Amino acid sequence: xxxxxxxxxxxxxxxxxxxxxxxxxxxxxxxxxxxxxxxxxxxxxxxxxxxxxxxxxxxxxxxxxxxxxxxxxxxxxxxxxxxxxxxxxxxxxxxxxxxxxxxxxxxxxxxxxxxxxxxxxxxxxxxxxxxxxxxxxxxxxxxxxxxxxxxxxxxxxxxxxxxxxxxxxxxxxxxxxxxxxxxxxxxxxxxxxxxxxxxxxxxxxxxxxxxxxxxxxxxxxxxxxxxxxxxxxxxxxxxxxxxxxxxxxxxx
Length: 252
Description:
mainly alpha, rod-shaped
């Protein structure tokens, strides 16, 4: 071995004793001061490393923080994967409610309320809050629609039953679509399904701003449209716990 080993001194010295390349490097260094200096420096480095105290194992708090960071990243990846189906389902909920109804309001207030409701449903779906806080936001948005279009008027019970069914149908659309897509990924939590159902019902309530014959009756809107969002969220939560999300990996 005639070439210099300055750059590879540490690697040569790390080889086990008796290894041909290690022995050749040592033999070469006896007649080459620069290579001998490199080997001496590598030997000193190995000695210093060997004298170091072993690192203590990570604490339980550090492991917990790392685990939570991994889970948070998994939730973000899951949300990114499922968001297109959630938005598509929400828009489909609005369209289906409008198609299934015969009444059509054309005044600017009703049109504006419908547009605002759809935008709210999509926007709340994009908010990265955990747990059921977005259910409250969806119910608040539905209540805002009621204040925008509601005036005096009674409950309109017969119409209310029809509206409630339509909101539950609207909630089922994004719920079913998200569940279908999620079969390729880790299943969303039951809380995530509650949020998805609430947003579908909110989109349905936006559609009812155009199609409900009693859309100017505040009492009717509060009892059937606003509480319909809450009822849909409860149904989504129950469905998630019982059937759709048996092994949740974290709340959405």
